[in-house]
Design goal:
Helix content: 40-55%
Distance between the termini: 41 Å
Shape: globular
CATH superfamily of the largest domain: Spore Coat Polysaccharide Biosynthesis Protein SpsA, Chain A
Number of strands: 9
Structural class: alpha/beta
Number of domains: 2
């Protein structure tokens, strides 16, 4: 039977780590290996706390524990896990999130039946009370072709990392994650699409992401830089898109910038970007802003 490697990078959130690991150990599909990559830096207080937690699994042959000498970031930590993996399939889980019990089994079946190189599931995000804040339903068909994939990714972002399952060979052929400070998962999917990997969509919510008390959408200078880099990447594909699709992409971009500037009390920049968003797509702007408002108010 094929092995599935589940890679869990962890950094400063060891209090949730057991919940993540146990959700994988409780899967209906049991031919798994779990690779926990501790990215806290060897010998730091957080690393020692994590190591103490991981001692619970020291006798479990399905769980491997790797300690990075220094903090290398999410992209490279996941690549370390990829290099250490032995599975036919590779999937990922953040240290504070969980898989629903049938996640791996359903994905493996879909991968094998359809010959997919990459499959995507849907997910929901909950707060600490277990209330659903948001759902992520991938806006693609079950077996999308290149143009559908690319268009959906440019507009809607075919993420989150927890939803992915790759054939190990295919993931390694495209080089795994690139070392971006942010948006690594977005760029990985874009690489997969450009490499013409066969991608499939499993139309089921199989992952639960968690948003914790006090956690907010990133609003710092780093987020502004990422948005500007992303729109440059997306503009390279505008020649393939119609005017409505271009407007939706720009609307998302300006809406995110509005929110960042507003949270940082840079009201002139916030107003400017809100006007630009409304100009390109009034309905799209309303939808994005309502989504932000709902996430924050229900956290």
């Amino acid at each position: 039977m094929d092995i599935v490697s589940v890679i869990i990078p962890t950094y400063k959130r060891c209090e949730y780590l057991c919940r993540a690991i146990d959700s994988v150990l409780s899967q209906s599909f049991q031919n798994i290996e779990i690779i926990v990559v501790d990215d806290n830096g060897n010998g730091t207080n957080q690393q020692l706390k994590t190591e103490n937690i991981m001692s619970k699994y020291s006798s479990n042959e399905k769980v491997k524990y790797i300690i990075n000498k220094n903090n290398v970031g999410g992209a490279l930590a996941r690549n370390i896990g990829i290099s250490a993996s032995t599975g036919t399939f590779i999937t990922f889980l953040d240290d504070d999130d969980i898989y629903l019990p049938e996640k791996i089994g359903i994905q493996v079946e879909g991968m094998k039946t359809n010959g997919w190189d990459l499959s995507l599931t849907d997910n929901k995000t909950c707060n600490e009370k277990g209330e659903i804040i948001n759902t992520k339903i991938q806006n693609i068909s079950e077996n999308p072709e290149y143009k559908e994939l690319l268009t959906a990714h440019l507009i809607d972002h075919l993420t989150v990392t927890n939803n992915f399952m790759f054939r190990s060979k295919s993931l390694k052929n495209i080089g795994g994650f690139d070392n971006y400070s942010s948006a690594q998962e977005y760029m990985l999917v874009l690489k997969a699409i450009e490499a013409k990997l066969k991608v499939g969509h499993i139309k089921r919510i199989l992952v639960v992401n968690h948003m914790h008390e006090g956690e907010r959408i990133s609003t710092g200078p780093k987020k502004i830089k990422v948005q500007k880099e992303l729109i440059k990447v997306k503009r390279k594909y505008f020649y393939l898109l119609n005017s409505k699709q271009k407007r939706l992409i720009l609307c998302r971009h300006y809406s995110v910038l509005f929110f960042i500037f507003y949270k940082n009390k840079k009201y002139y920049n916030a107003l400017l970007n809100s006007i630009l968003a409304i100009i390109v797509s009034p309905i799209g702007t309303l939808n994005y802003l309502n989504n932000y408002k709902r996430k924050l108010s229900r956290n």
